[in-house]
């Protein structure tokens, strides 16, 4: 049994092993530079002489008055309305789920030390690091919503279109479809001008080419998918440049095709055709429809729907303010792992055993009796004070270990309670 100072009143779970990623010594807080205007600078602005004195103030007012009519006559600049953030749709709820391995190790530590912890404090420890918990998105009963989650990663979306956009840029696309280049004839026709990308300047296609719109859509999906298609189109420039037309014609002699890995006879002349084939054939295996999906709390927002990202952040923020939902879930998880969850002085705690009064017919051995008699007089004092009072002055390490085991036995029986701050209590103090 490890000793703890009477002065240590804070929750200490430094010995906890929350799994491979949890054992790191992280600095939770980041330092941010404060930008504050000092009183000295404010005083300089208010009371400096010369150009900054009262006369300058009067001149400034007169000057502003003289040109006020001109200013009012000019149209005011209207700022565009901020883009409204998508919210979690009605019918879908988000909740925090601690990582199972972390809860297992938490239970082992509590059982090994015999200490009793506030469930809310345990919830706050979990919330301190985003790798200690996941977010569960659940579709409520009766809701028409469906969640699609990729089997390759935790990409989670509301619609099939979002899934296809994710799939097109993922490594899994290359696993299912081979990309090959084939030689073809250049397009035939009269092409006096050509449309060029407004960002890179590269030629896209002549406006009178039959697949003009399809080539624009492919270029947008490949390089500018995060930009609205209409905005991308507005930046396209049309040029009369024979050299660029010739460059485009030469590039069109090499056509990229997509072949199904499992059947090379199935070939597609565009990526959009390959995606349509995937949607009709293998979509449900790669993006199964779910009513409950789990994602890591630190998941990249590029691979989840915007509404899910908003729900994730709001759920974490709510639980950081008051972790009531997480605490309720922890109670079920801890009690299911054979820890005792009960109210200690009107607050939920978890420990090795519920408090029990020592039965009158139960005789205690010498060492447990000495510990119990000390607690009857000194309930609430620290464990260091206990050992200072009951341990003999001349004692071997083996004998000391025996005392520790006896205290641990009493904690497991519920005759005494050792709180996380190191204070030892009689079981009757629970009310």
- SS summary, helix count: 17
- Residue share in helix: 40-55%
Residue windows where pLDDT falls under 50 for at least 5 positions? 1-50, 66-77
Structural class: alpha+beta
Q: For the residues shown, what is the average pLDDT?
A: 80
Percent range for β-strand residues: 15-25%
List the topology elements.
Elements: H1 39-47, H2 54-66, H3 68-73, E1 92-98, H4 100-113, E2 115-118, H5 119-127, E3 133-139, E4 147-149, E5 156-157, H6 160-168, H7 171-176, E6 177-183, E7 194-196, E8 203-205, H8 212-223, H9 229-234, E9 237-239, H10 242-251, E10 254-260, E11 263-268, H11 271-281, H12 283-286, E12 289-290, E13 292-296, H13 306-321, H14 324-336, E14 340-344, E15 347-351, H15 366-378, H16 383-390, H17 397-413, E16 416-419, E17 424-426
Parallel strand pairs: 2-16
Antiparallel strand pairs: 1-3, 2-15, 3-13, 4-5, 4-12, 6-10, 7-8, 7-9, 10-11, 14-15, 16-17
Helix pairs in contact: 5-14
